[in-house]
Amino acid sequence: MLSRSALLVQQLSTVNSRRNLSIKQLHDIKPIIKRNLAWFSNQPGKETFGGRLKRRLKNVFVVTVAGLGTFYAYRAYNRYKWFHEMSDSDKTLGTKQRIVVLGTGWGAVPLLKHIDTNKYEVICVSPRNYFLMTPLLPSVSVGTVETRTVIESVRSLIGPRIKYIEAHCVNIDPKAKLITCNTDGDSNVSRGDDVKAILSISKREGGASSRIIKDSARTRPQFDMKYDILVVAVGSENNTFNTPGVEEHAHFLKELLDARRIRSAISDAFESAMTPTQTVEEKKRLLHFVVVGGGPTGVEFAAELADLVREDLQHYFPRLVANDVKITLIEALDHVLSMMDKKISDYTERHFRRENIEVLMNTFVKEVKQREVVVQYKGSTELKSIPCSMVVWATGIKARPLTNKIREIIGLNIQSNRMGLLTDRYLRVKGVDDGSIFAIGDCATIQPAKLADRIQALFEEADTQNRGALDLQQFRTLVEKKVAEYPQLEVFSKKIEDAFAEADKDKSGYLTLSTLRSILEKADQKIRALPATAQVASQEGRYVAKLLNQLSNVHSTDFQQQNLTPFQYKHMGSLAYVGGDEAVLDFTGSKPLLDYFDLKPLSGRSAVYLWKSFYFTEMFTGRTKTLLAFDWVRTHIFGRDISRY
Amino acid sequence: MLSRSALLVQQLSTVNSRRNLSIKQLHDIKPIIKRNLAWFSNQPGKETFGGRLKRRLKNVFVVTVAGLGTFYAYRAYNRYKWFHEMSDSDKTLGTKQRIVVLGTGWGAVPLLKHIDTNKYEVICVSPRNYFLMTPLLPSVSVGTVETRTVIESVRSLIGPRIKYIEAHCVNIDPKAKLITCNTDGDSNVSRGDDVKAILSISKREGGASSRIIKDSARTRPQFDMKYDILVVAVGSENNTFNTPGVEEHAHFLKELLDARRIRSAISDAFESAMTPTQTVEEKKRLLHFVVVGGGPTGVEFAAELADLVREDLQHYFPRLVANDVKITLIEALDHVLSMMDKKISDYTERHFRRENIEVLMNTFVKEVKQREVVVQYKGSTELKSIPCSMVVWATGIKARPLTNKIREIIGLNIQSNRMGLLTDRYLRVKGVDDGSIFAIGDCATIQPAKLADRIQALFEEADTQNRGALDLQQFRTLVEKKVAEYPQLEVFSKKIEDAFAEADKDKSGYLTLSTLRSILEKADQKIRALPATAQVASQEGRYVAKLLNQLSNVHSTDFQQQNLTPFQYKHMGSLAYVGGDEAVLDFTGSKPLLDYFDLKPLSGRSAVYLWKSFYFTEMFTGRTKTLLAFDWVRTHIFGRDISRY
């Protein structure tokens, strides 16, 4: 091989040494190259079996060596780059504006990935040192997907130029631009038998540490940190709606440890039912699983549980599955997946009936006890007790203590929304004068600008001819010009003539101030808070990163002057897995897709491939993508593991 | 394709229809088959690129369809067989002798896999519903291998013909042949704030459940179970040697949850050290990891930890790794891996110095405190305090409460060994008259038969000519005949002339009773209890299964009469991973291998492949084999995950 390539080089250099290459000379090179290329490709003439095998083995060997070489070279380069950038960012410490981001969830991570680290010094502070792919938690809770598949270390996600500190932020001083962190007051806890204190910490942390007995060695001193810009992306907590017994006896499904506990509890229930001397009644109770909440989390968990029972547990416990297992989904409204299209709710309910999942609609859970749930049907005053084993509580969210603390610090008269921090349309927290605090994700709500508040100004601006009335053209201009600022105007965008005709009751062809008011108030009523979804948080995170990257002057608070566009949410559709290799997708309201294809709500087996490919592409890194694909194949071939630990 | 095969069938049936097939007619068929086969193989003549691609795609398609078809057919058949066998074994309930096996570890599982279920009704009782591949725990504790890779559900391991019940055996009645199980007295525990009681249960269970807060729904009533034969394979507990503070502040490395906790604690230590305002001293303390015990577990854990630090943590915490991380291994003897060859100990110590693992030899741990260990050097009376973060305690084992309870029930005068249940050479527990209880694994010790006790009888038997003295030939016969019963005679087997000459001090060519006594007493001194390893337990498990399968009459206790051979341990060598892709293997004393190859202690990179392939083949199922291979590749490509949950 060496001699051949040496020959090629020699031949080419001979040709080249003539200096003046004419077209004719190029023709001289062609056959040389062709002859040499022929050596790499198929040999002419008849090939023996041994010859072909040899050639193929050689090819495999060359490809393997080249592949491994590329892989190790790429890794070595990446490591070098990583260290280089890390020391680089250490050198510039203190010379740039500092952004502190609280959180490592769906809002914070997209922000951290898109922020310009050449422009800012960025520090991320969060008690959870990994990003969690929350939509896959129902899969994790039954073992379809493993725990480490759905998490990625935040340090590897955000790269070497951003600092991460594992700490709880407990206080904020917006005047001094200072946050105070004290990871869990560990230094105040006397160790030894004071197990309760440790347990309460672990509870407060949302179960962020499994080392309840043995985390004796850590110290986490309190510290303060200055910021120039603070981004609050701390997410939300489970909302029990003050239902008694939920904290003590129900499982949540929000963090990774919840999923682990549920998986363990399912296995525990079956092993308990297999204990000799159990009565039939007790077996039925032990194998009755109750899911409270018919949103995507509750529906997906019930679906995954039904899959686990049918595909794996039936194998090991055929009698129990045939006679005693029962899954019940309790929903307070009259439909599951009520945020989706009606067709999808109906489909899911029909599908659940086929999967033997009982759905109790219009049912309120009044109390969760150790071995039962107490429910009340709508319109009835009677309380009914349902004996059951595991209760999974997936109803809703509420603001975290830190969010409420920030609201109090700013003033509850301004921060009047109990669900989270009110922000303007640039996601800046209301009531912070210098605009230095942003809030994104579940802990934030954009305060809607009401058209009715500025009706006079809007009318005057639109009435270009000062005739005290607007014609259709002027109304259209008004809507088009203001839709960015007032997203509620979107309801008119497609049927502006109809809206105009409806408002113009006397058929004069003009709108007066009062008829305009009536039509705009109707639009104001359509204002809804953005849903607390990963999709919203992720778009908000990207938006704030882009906004901060564009910002010419951090201290100027007039963003309109700087030609910065306010945040606009683009709905891409909702989807949920409903079990038995079927999924439902709802593209209603997702403009980008609806404009190109006329997509209606999708359901069934085709949807599950869309569901899978969506989550596959959503996984942040090559590592998690590989693990997810492997997990799906593994579950398909080997089934789910039922070991309890 | 259809027409072609139709043609083939037609042609063949034409030939066949002639009824009387002669040799000549067979010749007629040959070219037809050949021609049709040619269609499947390579086409003659020159092949175009498109033609070849088409052919190859077709091949890929055919292979894929055939492969998937085989896979699904095989799975469907397996499922059918599983249910069939399960209902089959249900039908024969109560008609066969019942064997109850306590445990799901290295002793119990090989027994359960080899027992003849046609002959016995077999029930397995254990609080842990999975088999744990204990030698891989050090790998799990740093994330080289994931948790679910090293466990396999016991239900899937033992198959449909053996019943498994998840329960704690708490008492045994050898007279009534009855065991009492009460899983964890849960029914006695009042729930609610009684967190301490629950915690103490979880502690007692060896951390078998992670659901400390939320396992409110289970019930595990007490039950009794009759047995005909009982096999005790409950294993052992960690031995703290009454060192103060170990239970409270040190990590063990024996169960899966220990490994999980350690992994979490390592990450926790690094995150703590990254907290601002930590002093240099405190950083050094937080990153000082101490391993107590220089046996295989301690050495492998230290090695894996060093790998984790060098390969992954260095990437994320370059400064901490360069300045502050320290790993110390504390060993009470003057060598690590003291049960292995001296060369291997030396090699490991040299290797650990290169890996920056400090080894403190001749050092005793007197106390473990919250943030330090107190040690004492051999020959010194001074106590020294070493500040440290995590302490991993891997020193030794002791008997479980159930083992001690059985010893008490039988009588401590017979069961005088504190390490476990004394058995005879058929592994039957001493002091049980009907021989109905066997003990295997870590909880059992074979009571050695001492030659000195029967010296008179042995001498008389060997002295065939009644001359009051033995010549070399008679001594040789004695050794060969009795080596099965008295394994300690093996020390003579290779150099019997030397032993004879040494004992025969007056060179008379004969041994008298007193010289024979002196030589046999020397042999008795060589008796050692079998090590508490997976290898021993596994061989004992297989042995008992084989024994019970051969047994013609369960109630006859004279096994010698039934020509049953006593248990003999075959040492296959020991091995340990020492980090940096190096392992050590010691084949000393492993006869089968030493006889064929002259294998010396192995160490270094070649050994690691042997180490890996050994564990790969040891994995019980295709599932765990696949997962282990995947984990190794994943760690190599993506590194270990440092998320803490």
UniProtKB/TrEMBL annotation, chains A, B:
Entry-linked SUPFAM superfamilies: EF-hand (SSF47473), FAD/NAD(P)-binding domain (SSF51905)
Organism: Adineta ricciae
Subcellular location: Mitochondrion inner membrane
Annotated protein name in UniProt: EF-hand domain-containing protein
Organism superkingdom: Eukaryota
Keywords: FAD, Flavoprotein, NAD, Oxidoreductase
Listed Pfam families: NDH2_C, Pyr_redox_2
Recorded GO CC terms: mitochondrial inner membrane
Principal subcellular localisation of the protein: mitochondrion
InterPro entries the record matches: EF-hand-dom_pair, EF_hand_dom, FAD/NAD-bd_sf, FAD/NAD-binding_dom, NDH-2, NDH2-like_C
